[in-house]
Specification:
With 139 residues, the protein is mainly β. It is built from 3 helices and 9 strands, in the order βββββαββαββα. The chain has a 5-stranded mixed β-sheet.
Length: 139
């Protein structure tokens, strides 16, 4: 997937589905990365702006925008992304650690980097991405 022009990958195991962006209701006093909540066939899903969570800036909603629906700690969470490029197999043995010059939020949330179609892709560490601010990452 693309997040603010960065090619990112996530483990597909917790991904339940990918949906187009529909009506999202804002949640007052929520962290800035929480876009709001949406009704997905009777389930209330909290939608997180992955660009904001990664400190890359807000993700504008366009016709290409998608929401990854993730099963997380017994509930459904949505990750707002710029678009989906597809599913590619990644050999974790071929993954390299994030570059030393990547600091701050991104270094804590990136499991490693790998080569995909002549581009570097950052594999996101979903437990770190989905942990609430100040909480340790857990599944």
């Amino acid at each position: 997937c693309f997040v603010r022009n960065a090619l990112c990958g996530v483990d597909t195991e917790p991904v339940q589905e990918i949906v187009k962006v529909g009506h999202i209701t804002p949640v007052h006093h929520a962290p800035d990365y929480v876009v709001g909540i949406m009704n997905l066939r009777g389930r209330v899903v909290t939608v997180i702006d992955l660009g904001m969570k990664l400190d890359l800036g807000a993700t504008p909603v366009t016709p290409d925008s998608r929401i990854l629906i993730i099963a997380w700690q017994g509930e459904a969470l949505g990750l707002l992304i710029d678009n989906v490029q597809g599913v590619v197999p990644v050999d974790k043995a071929q993954m390299k650690p994030p570059p030393e010059n990547v600091r701050g939020v991104q270094s804590d949330m990136v499991e490693g980097v790998c080569q995909v179609d002549n581009r570097l892709m950052a594999m996101l560490d979903l437990p770190s991405v989905l942990a609430a601010d100040g909480e340790p990452a857990r599944n």
